[in-house]
Amino acid sequence: MDKLTSMNVFVRVAKAGSFAGAAKDLDISRAMATKHIMQLESELNTRLFNRTTRSLSLTEAGEAYLERCQQVLLDVAEMESAITHLQTEPRGTLKILAPPVIGASHISPGLTEYLKNYPDLSVEMVLKGGQVDLIDEGVDLAIYLGQLNDTSLVARKLASSSLVVCASPEYLKNHGIPQDPEDLEDHSCLINWAIPPRNKWRFKGILGERTVTVTGRMQANMADPIRNAAVNGLGLIMLPRYIVGRDIEQGRLQVVMEQYGIAPLEIYAVYPHRKYLSAKVRSFLEFIQAWLPHRIGMNP
Amino acid sequence: MDKLTSMNVFVRVAKAGSFAGAAKDLDISRAMATKHIMQLESELNTRLFNRTTRSLSLTEAGEAYLERCQQVLLDVAEMESAITHLQTEPRGTLKILAPPVIGASHISPGLTEYLKNYPDLSVEMVLKGGQVDLIDEGVDLAIYLGQLNDTSLVARKLASSSLVVCASPEYLKNHGIPQDPEDLEDHSCLINWAIPPRNKWRFKGILGERTVTVTGRMQANMADPIRNAAVNGLGLIMLPRYIVGRDIEQGRLQVVMEQYGIAPLEIYAVYPHRKYLSAKVRSFLEFIQAWLPHRIGMNP
DNA sequence: TTTATTGTTTCTTAACTTTATACAATTTAT
DNA sequence: ATAAATTGTATAAAGTTAAGAAACAATAAA
């Protein structure tokens, strides 16, 4: 028998001045009202009411109990509403993890925008590549590139960005323009191993899929150094268009093998569980899902 | 499922940092620990722990809940111990009701003695004859004379005092000394109707029981005026020896018809219930039960 | 008197709690 | 590297309890 319920019954009986009245208020049977009080009395080993069939009065212990009961019940109600409120209104701290480049270039502008709507919310952003244990680190939501293989996490697709192979015009002039995936084996391919699979580039041509194992003069766990190296003529890169788009527009990089299709890079939001999703995560998720595709340039 | 129990489980899990550890502490199964937490989470609609099989961390809501839970649990424990203590140690206010004469002459000296042992206890004494609703008046314990016919009350015999019929020597000289119960019909018999049955005096002689209906020049609901009147020669009285004892010793009153037996007046302590008897009532009961018979002059 | 209402008791059914057992995931030990 | 142990959870069976209906004794009002 739930003690808090019994305490509530006790308070109502004391207020109503009768078991029957309280029972009606609480929509329970008179029998249950009796049982709740008797339960409390037996647990406390104390008589709470002096009662006969027709008259009812609190004992001294009952008076003392009543006062404290009310306080406890109030506290519990206040507590639950506070917790529920935390669940309903975005507030507190939202800890986000994202790969450095997209985090800095695309997620953080979105965050800034988002935060304007929720004055009680603050954000902690961690820019880090590679696999991270979200739960250990207390991360609320992470941005992942490519697919995910942790079954305990929930992934939601946010957007996708086409991958392009490109190099600086200078490099292409010196080493020739590759026409076929196989040609890549003779080139310097700069590898960003933040995007899996590390050193395999996969193309879809007229003759089906072809996977090439590439090597090159530079590897990094971040896209930025790779992009820089390519702009400076160190080799070919395969990076999402949202990173190299401007370089291409402005002629610093030049796309090659456009006739081949490359499976686009998928961008996912990832979070620990789907039930009881906190308001801050839920609402940011909705926001970024609407916001990101426009900035990436493609729909999810 | 008792919410306070669940809250306790929650606190222990948070402290132990694992369900299994908390389960061992609380001597319940791991399964139950899980269920308690799940129950809370579903009631709050909020995830309290981020957890996988191997790692556990409080959510933001969990942190907030933990703090308040501990406070509530402490409050409840404190409250219960306070109530139980009230039940174990005599303290607070003991409300006693007694017939005026015995209350003033015998009970209140006992009370004074008794109170010395319990500095946290105070007493409210009501001297009143006749039937009183103990529960309505919030009386903890009453002293009753004669038998009781309220089934909802518990009576415990404290003492008995022999009743004697007597009058002033002056009265007896003027009206003659009654030898037989029947003689009383020609006398003025002063009636104290605080002691039932009101106007019938019952004697036990060699020839069996005899009940006489008496009348007289004065009736009162208290013994004192009756005794006074008798001392002043207004008639015969039948009062317990503890009231008229001294008057007899000092010759102000003279006993008659001593050869007849009169059922002694029984003195009872009466209280509302026998279960969960509060410490103050229980201990005073014990005290007065040991104390009173000596002062009344007869054993219970 | 009859009628209605009170707090309580008894009894039965429905609901819940608890345990035992199994399982998937993951870590530690050998 | 394989086996053993430990974690949180799921599921089903057993055991326990809570809930309401009906009946009851006590009392008050009509």
UniProtKB/TrEMBL annotation, chains A, B:
SUPFAM superfamilies: Periplasmic binding protein-like II, Winged helix' DNA-binding domain
MF terms (GO), sorted A to Z: DNA-binding transcription factor activity; sequence-specific DNA binding
Keywords: DNA-binding, Transcription, Transcription regulation
PROSITE patterns in the record: HTH_LYSR
HTH lysR-type domain: residues covered: 1-59
Superkingdom, taxonomy of origin: Bacteria
Classification via InterPro entries: LysR-type_TF_proteobact-type, LysR_HTH_N, LysR_subst-bd, WH-like_DNA-bd_sf, WH_DNA-bd_sf
GO BP of this protein: DNA-templated transcription
Protein family membership: Belongs to the LysR transcriptional regulatory family.
Stated name of the protein: LysR family transcriptional regulator
Protein's organism: Methylomonas koyamae
